[in-house]
Amino acid sequence: MTIDELNNSDRFEVLNFFLQCCGCTKWIELMASSRPFLDKQDILEKSEMYWNSIEYFHRMEAFLHHPKIGDIKSLKKKYSGSKLLSESEQSGVNSASEETLRLLSDLNTEYEKKFGFIFIVCATGKSAEEMIFLLLDRIGNSYEKEIEIAMSEQNKITKLRLEKFL
């Protein structure tokens, strides 16, 4: 979608566009209300500004819109409209062995039990093995530290998606 198309699309299309980038309703509303955008940089700057200004419990809503890393069935179900985007973001997982995926799934479950949300990582360019190491490293964090890391990773994912879609 071009900047001009985004600026001139109806509200429903704009809300849907931003939903494909981030699942936080508050962020989506703020972004949709920010039109017209000057350029791509304006969108990226507003995205970051709004993301950082939203209360963390609103930002956590975005986590609910992510498939678990390595869960291709969940990925296909949740992101039928942006399936290819999500799959390309997790391309390092798609080629992983069954054993590696099982370990990734087990660590995801352990992580979710500890923190109350799924493991959020900007997975683009990372292999399944790298994500296992990241999970092992981050699972030892305090809740406070981990929520900040997860929110930062979500912001990276949103930025990456905005850049891919524009």
Plain-language structure description:
With 166 residues, the protein is mostly helical. It is built from eleven helices and no strands. It has two domains: 3-60, no CATH class; 67-165, Orthogonal Bundle (UraD-like). 67% of the residues lie in helices and 0% in strands.
Q: What is the CATH topology classification name of the largest domain? A: UraD-like
Average pLDDT taken over every residue: 86
Largest sheet: none
Q: How many domains?
A: 2
Q: Count the DSSP helices.
A: 11
* Series of H and E elements: HHHHHHHHHHH
In short:
The chain is mainly alpha-helical and about 170 residues long. The chain has helices spanning about 5-10, 10-20, 25-30, 40-55, 55-60, 70-80, 85-90, 90-95, 100-115, 130-140, 145-165. The model is unreliable at about 75-85 (pLDDT under 50).
List the helices and strands and how they pair.
Elements: H1 3-8, H2 11-19, H3 25-32, H4 40-53, H5 56-59, H6 72-78, H7 83-89, H8 91-94, H9 98-115, H10 128-138, H11 143-165
Helix pairs in contact: 2-3, 4-11, 9-10
